[in-house]
């Protein structure tokens, strides 16, 4: 009888923590207006668009100071008109709020944006 070979495996314990990463797979491509062309990441749960100094996405007049809000929640990105005078247009129609989909066109004043789901 052959002597048994020593066990070449060694028990090990691997522990780790998985950090959950928030994914914001949405982009705005500015097609027209001051600053165009440019890409804007919608990388926070809420972003303001307007002419205010503290606006996340700055656009010139005739936009309101806080003209529109982009809100990311529950796997969707929604644009809201923040009771602006000149409105937010989605694919040519004035809206109060709408869930965005790839290739949607958003117009605010003289700026035109194309929405992308990355």
Number of helices: 0
The oligomeric state of the chains shown is single chain
The low-confidence runs, each spanning 5 or more residues with pLDDT under 50, are none
The major β-sheet equals:
6 strands, antiparallel
Main structural class: mainly beta
Lateral arrangement of strands in the main beta sheet: 2-1-11-10-7-8
Rounded to the nearest angstrom, the radius of gyration is 24 Å
- Going by CATH, the architecture would be Sandwich
Give an overview in words.
There is one protein chain. By secondary structure, this protein is mainly β. It has strands at residues 26-32, 38-41, 46-50, 57-58, 68-73, 76-81, 88-90, 93-95, 97-99, 105-108, 111-117. The protein has no helices and eleven strands. It has a six-stranded antiparallel β-sheet with strand order 2-1-11-10-7-8, with no helix packed on it. A five-stranded mixed β-sheet has the order 4-3-5-6-9, with no helix packed on it. A hairpin with a 2-residue loop joins strand 10 and strand 11. It is elongated, with a radius of gyration of 24 Å. The relative contact order is 0.21. The mean pLDDT is 86.
């Amino acid at each position: 009888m052959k002597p048994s070979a020593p066990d070449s495996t060694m028990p090990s314990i691997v522990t780790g923590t998985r950090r959950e990463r928030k994914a914001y797979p949405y982009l705005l491509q500015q097609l027209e207006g001051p600053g165009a062309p440019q890409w804007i990441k919608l990388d926070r749960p809420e972003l303001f668009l307007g002419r205010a100094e503290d606006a996340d996405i700055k656009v010139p007049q005739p936009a309101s100071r806080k003209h529109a809000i982009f809100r990311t929640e529950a796997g969707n990105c929604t644009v809201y008109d923040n009771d602006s005078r000149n409105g937010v247009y989605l694919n040519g129609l004035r809206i109060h709020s709408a869930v965005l989909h790839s290739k949607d066109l958003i117009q605010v004043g003289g700026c035109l944006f194309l929405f992308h789901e990355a």
